[in-house]
Amino acid sequence: MENHSFLKGMVKHLVIDGNLDFAWWTALDLVMTQGRKYFIDSGSCDQTHRLTLPMIIEVHKPGIRPLAPIMPEGSDIAPPTTEEKIEEYVASLVTNEVAKEQHYTYGEDLWWQIEEVIKYFKKYGFGNACCHMPVGRPESFLFYNWDIDYHEMIVVEDRKTGETLWTRHITNTWNKKPKVEVSSQCLRGIDCWVENGKLHFWCYFRSNDLYAAWPENHGGLQIMKEMMAERLGVGDGVLITSCKDLHVYESTWLMALKRLKKDQEDNQGNVIILKDR
Length: 277
Description:
277 residues; 10 strands; globular; disordered C terminus
């Protein structure tokens, strides 16, 4: 019988005893040097390529500022986000406000769950495995379907009084707009637990743009975790994220390589990236 314990695993697991900037740089280096290159048949940035790796990133000091990536002194590369943009992004995680140009926000699913998780911890204690906050619904996959219409009305009522506490209407009708790029939630869930007096997050992304989106996503999640920890009266813990498709799009390969100081050119001035793996 084959001994599978000696097989090389597909998933990279990074344990970072540092901040988000160092975690981002380390993951970027792995994806750009070891990532699988594939052609995007459908989805975001289709008809181009991406480099990708399945990865778990465990950041032990995510609260160290700055949260945004730091570019080398004298660099001509603009950072993918800033402290100010991260602060603004937090609203899309903790409130249910959606701008006209947005198809969805994570906050549509999270805003009320944040309150419920805090209440649950305070009422029943920290010794539980119940406080998982899912993002999206099974029907989110219908966002990609141009052949059907999907509507759902969620009504939450007080059991004793029958009072309607809040409602939410979910639909895929926005994908009828011409030239719209259909999408569904990349963040799919946040597991919360308290251990050794600290609140920890384990987040799952079905897909995550490592270069352009990861820094803002994780900076916002870190601030959200700090806000919840303060209300619970506990410390700030680790931030763990897992993603089966942590990727860098072809359009940002050159910027990523410059940030890693690994950009190279051939004698015709063409940037050398990676061969197909």
